[in-house]
Every structure is written in C-alpha cells, then in structure tokens.
Amino acid sequence: MREILFFGRTDQGRVRKQNEDIFLLNQEKHFCLVADGIGGSRAGGIASKIFAQTVSDYFETIVDPLESEAPGLIKEIFLTANSNILNHAREHQECSGMGCTAELVLFFDNSYVLGHMGDSRTFRLRNGSLKQLTIDHSLVQEQISQGLITPEEAKKHSFKNIIVRAVGIEENPLLDILKGKILTGDRFLLCSDGLTDIIEISQIEEVLNSSLDDNQNVEILVENAKESLGKDNITVVLAQINS
Length: 243
Known about the structure:
The chain is an alpha+beta fold. About 35% of the residues lie in helices and about 30% in strands. It contains seven helices and ten strands. Helix 1 (about 45-60) crosses helix 2 (about 70-90). The radius of gyration is 17 Å and the shape is globular.
C-alpha cells in the first residue's frame, strides 16, 4: 500500500456556540471522513459523532478490505449510521430532526472509493488543478441542474443552505458512491460548507498550490474562512498521496 498522509482541523468559527462538525483520520486503515451536523442546538453535533463512531466501529473489525468490496462496505456503513442516528433521535426527543452531511473516502493502492451525502464536499488536486468530485445534495444545486438559476445566483440564494439529503433524516436515503484512480502527487480535500460557502474554489486552489506543507495549508484555509466571516463551523481535511 502506498503512503498516504492525512491532515485535518475543525473550528467552530466566530458565530456558532458549538462545533457540530467532526473529522476522522486513519492512516493505518487508509480512510478519512468529514461530517457536518444539522438539526439545531447540540443535536447536529451528536449526529456527526454517531456517524464518525459508526465508521470507527466498522473499521475496528475490518482488515484490508478488497477494492471490490468497498462500495458495498461504504453503503452498509452509511445505512447503519443512518439507523443509529434515527434510533437515537427516537429515544431522545430533544434530538428530533437531527442528521449530518458526510464524506467518507477509502483509499487503495491505485484508487479511491468515496461515499457522499449532503453539501459537504470532496475535491481532488491533480497537476495544480482543483476538481470538485461531489455534487451537493441541496435545493439550489437541484435548481442549477435544472437550469433555473446560475451558480452565481446560487451563492446569494435565500435557500442556499437547504439540503435535500443527509444521514439520519429518513429511512433508506440515497447515497452517492464515486470511484476513481489515484496518482502519486494527488491531494484530496474534504470539507464542510463552512469553508466553501466563504472561500472561492480558485482561492482554495491557490492555497493548495503554495510552497507550504499540507499541515500549514489546512490551518490557512480554516483561518481564511474565519477571517472572511466565520459564521459557520469550518472543517478541512487533506489526504496527500505519496509513492
């Protein structure tokens, strides 16, 4: 297995009283995740933690899964986390309506498998060019896809924060599973919308193409989002594909 280095940071930002984001890095098992809680108060943070704990519990019992098994494994993890969140909400009325967006990427020697639900995002930087791999499960993205509004109009839309899919909101949610090749030098960025709602993709690309290391890049991206507005929780994870 090639070397993959992970870096991450989460911050509650300058406005929110709690941080409902969470990230998890596991260099030994070659995966990383970002989850962003929804549902108000502290409940969203509980949903994020349940998702991360579900992932962690699965990988405690899994040894070197095959690439062919990864899509089924990721789907099973998401559906189990979905049930765990729904069950917790049923047992704790104050958590009713909670859920989370989630990005989970599992790496192999020459490929990745990605599970995506919500409006957190995963990008890949290759040869200096940053490409968004995921499509937001949001109301404004649906309107963009239908040609009703432009991406520029979406940035200022009054419903831009309404998501149409999340973990823990309904039974059997649809999950996007994406697969692709990895090359030496690729870097993957996972982030909550606290970053991408504030910082332009071109600015993120510029930071990642700087001469700084990725530990510093994570810090810079979070701090830039805080300085620009910081109205939401901000979480950034970078995975660096080495030889």
